[in-house]
Amino acid sequence: MQLPFAFLLAMSLALIAAHLPDVLADSPSTTHNIVVDDTDGSPDGVYKVIYSPPDVWKAGSAKGCDGCLVSGIDASKVRNGTWHEAAYDAAHPQQITATILFNGDAAAYAGTGISVYGLFPRTNLNATNNVYFFYAIDNSESQAFGYLNATAGYDSSQNSTAAVDYDVSLFGVSGLNASRPHNVTLLVGSGGNPRSAQQQDLGLSSIFLLDYVVIM
Ligand SMILES: *[C@@H]1O[C@H](CO)[C@@H](O)[C@H](O)[C@H]1NC(C)=O
Ligand SMILES: *[C@@H]1O[C@H](CO)[C@@H](O)[C@H](O)[C@H]1NC(C)=O
Ligand SMILES: *[C@@H]1O[C@H](CO)[C@@H](O)[C@H](O)[C@H]1NC(C)=O
Ligand SMILES: *[C@@H]1O[C@H](CO)[C@@H](O)[C@H](O)[C@H]1NC(C)=O
Ligand SMILES: *[C@@H]1O[C@H](CO)[C@@H](O)[C@H](O)[C@H]1NC(C)=O
Ligand SMILES: *[C@@H]1O[C@H](CO)[C@@H](O)[C@H](O)[C@H]1NC(C)=O
User: Fold this and answer.
1) Closest atom of ligand 4 to CA, residue 200
2) Which residues form the signal peptide (predicted)?
């Protein structure tokens, strides 16, 4: 069942206002959640995040992050010590995506939604602070990409003075059919959005720092 775009957007904004420990603690299905690390994937190896183009996504760890724009990240505060950064430059548009496929053939677990967690840069002298992205569910060209300005939703509810916030719930979808495979694709910035002409393509640069995904 496809959910109306407006519902997904409203739900995403609600998730942004929430923080990870609350979200997981309140979930009745906590023990069934599967955590998919940005680098290691899920513990059973079934799920991985697929990055495109691979070289645009920079891999960060305790050793640092070659090519990353956001510096000063404490690897001990990110899950499994790793994160991925992608920067979308509106002056040089390109399609930058991260995809997670679940409920496929190898899956022993039937999920009905995901939450995506990452880092939120506050002071970032070398790049934009905008966390501006779209997402698509189940690869339907005709279906609108959800659009989210996490900067607006997030800043209004936090008082952090840190350079980077950790464990930030960036977006989520729920209510998907557990009996079907699903494809949730994140699009950083607006490059390559098939629906960008009809939606809010403000031509803004964006940054995205992905830490992990929870399949619920
Ligand atoms: C900006 O980039 C320079 C050169 O790569 C680096 O030395 C500096 O730490 C960066 N500053 C921030 C705030 O990321
Ligand atoms: C990732 O961290 C979790 C705990 O957060 C741990 O159970 C798991 O073994 C770690 N995986 C790897 C590959 O280090
Ligand atoms: C997942 O969805 C994205 C966006 O619609 C699409 O580009 C990609 O080909 C899909 N992947 C699979 C394996 O269906
Ligand atoms: C996102 O929100 C921030 C903070 O409210 C604002 O400065 C920025 O212009 C917004 N970006 C978009 C694309 O709406
Ligand atoms: C943020 O700080 C202001 C001023 O100290 C306070 O009134 C407000 O309640 C704080 N908001 C949150 C979400 O903590
Ligand atoms: C969920 O998917 C299964 C398998 O495709 C289908 O039989 C079922 O009707 C779907 N349920 C709903 C509520 O769409």
Assistant:
1) 13
2) 1-25
Nearest ligand, CA 193:
3
Question: Rounded distance, CA 183 to CA 59, Å?
Answer: 22
The answer to whether 178 touches 109, Cβ cutoff 8 Å, is no
Domain ranges of the chain: 5-63+81-215
Mutate to test the pocket of ligand 2, among 34, 36, 40 (most ligand atoms within 8 A of CB): 40
Give the class (CATH, top level) of 5-63+81-215: mainly beta
Stated pTM of the model: 0.79
2 CA → ligand 4 middle, Å: 28
H/E stretch holding 168: strand 164-173
Structure tokens that stand for 13 in this block: 């904004």
Q: How far apart are CA 65 and CA 32, in angstroms?
A: 32
Say yes or no: CB of residue 193 within 6 Å of ligand 3: no
Please tell me the distance between residue 126's alpha carbon and the centre of ligand 1 in angstroms: 6
The chain-wide mean pLDDT, for the chain, equals 78
Written as tens digits, the pLDDT of the chain (216 aa) is 333 333 333 334 333 333 333 333 334 444 579 999 999 999 989 999 999 999 999 999 999 999 999 988 999 999 999 999 999 998 898 999 999 999 987 667 789 999 999 998 876 666 677 888 888 888 665 444 555 666 655 665 566 777 788 999 988 888 999 999 999 999 898 777 655 555 556 678 889 999 999 999
